[in-house]
Design goal:
The chain has 482 residues and is α/β, with parallel strands linked by helices. Helix content is 35%, strand content 16%. The strands form four sheets. It has a six-stranded mixed sheet with strand order 2-1-3-4-8-7, with helices on one face. It has a five-stranded parallel sheet with strand order 11-10-9-17-16.
Length: 482
């Protein structure tokens, strides 16, 4: 099973491969060998268009992989000619490796041999998969930099992706590839030890509408009071003026205590109790500003009621994050302003966190700009990357990993925490249209089981305002319990 191995100690993996695109190669090999498998490795330049993997001090044994994507010409790099040829070939995984890979049959070959056949003579193993190239393709979101397809919100749609078109969107293909690579390495060098991971459910919530009524700032309240006292229907006496002012001010201060904790079936309290029953540490992402009044929320993150909600969430062990506004993903000034507003509100309540994450409003991820904007703004991780129109593995993995900047050609400081499923993707009529019954539960359970098979993270987004009915709560509770 993934994550299990025995060994005498840590040894150095030697990877022989071409020297072109060194940053991209190092990114992919670091992600596979160092980050995921916990192995120390060294690069040895080679003129052969292939990867040859060996272990220092253990002669006579090697593992070979084809080199396809990262050896394309400069002319074809980030061009349609470099995309995988579809329909993809499929490699029938040997039965001995199926348990390691978390799959029970064939896997699609994103990049690799056109006639995918492996070999194993006990000393030399050959896989038909370009594992580094395929991992780079999926995790760097290479195709999204190449293809122009966008929906009405500027998002890359699932049906335009290779995974969507070739039917493996609900398979963690990157994780399968890495486990197949490890299975081959373990057969050749059974003493090697790898990093172990454990399955986790990571529940998260975008705080879009925490109030049944919009909250006003103190400035807006003062403006309303001034208008009431000075307008055409202004009070005739001091007592009437006092009463008129109280009619405006009192509801404002009452709303400081009126969140969905006490309204609409106590949604936040219900979420906290659900997390407590299952021992989960949830993440709550708050909007920090407005860049599109028609789509962004009407609350101010610094309002006392919102700060009180954040205090409660932190007291119960949960994480606070930023939910950047609709049009902020391409605007570094807006992102920084909203991030400052969130941290200022938290600092006022003495809420401190070692790391700060974000998830874009509407999952509005602009391929060539959003990651770079978040990275420059100082966010530590992003949790946006799934498709709005379909659940599954947009990045091919359910494990966190560093982003890659195609402009600089280098890895980012920003880490990407793949989102596997969103409530609206499953239930909405404009997306998968599965409702709240058995079909929706089955779809969510299946991707959760796919994460479990590779000891990954099932990251689920459920909005705060999607808990108004019993069927909504029942579906979420059943999925968390599955």
């Amino acid at each position: 099973m993934p994550g299990m191995a025995s060994g005498r100690g840590r040894q150095v993996i030697i990877v022989e491969c071409p020297v072109n695109r060194p940053s991209a190669r190092r990114y992919a090999l670091d992600l596979i060998l160092k980050e995921r498998l916990g192995l120390k490795w060294k690069w040895r330049p080679s003129t052969r268009r292939a990867y040859r993997i060996s272990v220092a001090g253990v002669p006579g044994r090697s593992l070979r992989l084809p080199d396809r994507l990262l050896s394309v010409s400069d002319q074809d790099w980030l061009q349609p000619a470099s995309l995988p040829r579809t329909p993809l070939a499929r490699w029938q995984v040997p039965p001995v490796d199926q348990a390691w890979a978390g799959t029970d049959g064939a896997v699609p070959v994103i990049y690799g041999k056109h006639s995918p056949v492996g070999s194993d003579d006990g000393l030399k193993v050959s896989l038909p998969l370009d594992v580094p190239g395929s991992v780079f393709f999926m995790c760097s979101r290479y195709e999204e930099w190449v293809l122009p397809d966008r929906d009405e919100h500027g998002r890359f749609p699932s049906h335009a992706s290779v995974a969507g078109r070739c039917g493996f969107l609900t398979e963690p293909i990157v994780d399968h590839y890495i486990e197949l690579l490890w299975a081959a390495m373990h057969r050749l060098w059974p003493h090697l030890r790898r990093r172990e991971t454990s399955f986790r459910t990571m529940l998260s919530h975008d705080v879009d509408r925490p109030y049944l009524e919009p909250l006003k700032s103190l400035k807006d309240v003062a403006t309303d009071v001034h208008a009431a006292l000075r307008g055409e229907n202004r009070p005739a006496t001091r007592e009437e003026a006092w009463l008129a002012g109280r009619e405006i001010v009192d509801p404002h201060f009452a709303l400081r205590r009126r969140t969905l904790l006490t309204e609409n079936g106590s949604a936040f309290r219900w979420l906290l109790d659900l997390a407590a029953r299952h021992g989960l540490r949830s993440a709550f992402y708050f909007l920090g500003g407005v860049t599109d009044p028609q789509r962004d929320a009407s609350y101010a993150v610094g309002h006392p009621a919102l700060r009180g909600l954040m205090v409660l969430l932190r007291r119960e062990g949960h994480e606070i994050g930023l939910h950047p506004s609709y049009a902020s993903g391409t605007d570094i000034t807006a992102i920084r302003r909203e991030f400052r507003a969130l941290r200022r509100a938290c600092a006022f309540e003495r809420i401190w966190q070692a790391k700060w994450g974000a998830r874009m409003h509407y999952l509005r991820w602009i391929p060539k700009e959003t990651a770079r904007t978040l990275d420059k703004a100082g966010l530590d991780y992003d949790a946006t990357l799934t498709y709005a129109d379909h659940i599954g593995f947009r990045c091919g993995t359910c494990h966190e990993f560093p982003g890659f900047d195609h402009v600089t050609g280098k890895p980012m400081r920003l880490r990407l925490r793949p989102l596997i499923a969103m409530d609206v993707s499953v239930t909405s009529r404009i997306y998968m249209n599965l409702g709240f019954g058995e079909a929706a539960f089955t779809a969510l359970r299946d991707v959760k089981e796919a994460c479990r098979a590779v000891n990954g993270n099932f990251t689920l987004l459920w909005h705060d305002n999607r808990l108004a009915t019993e069927e909504e709560r029942h579906l979420l509770a059943e999925v968390v319990s599955a």
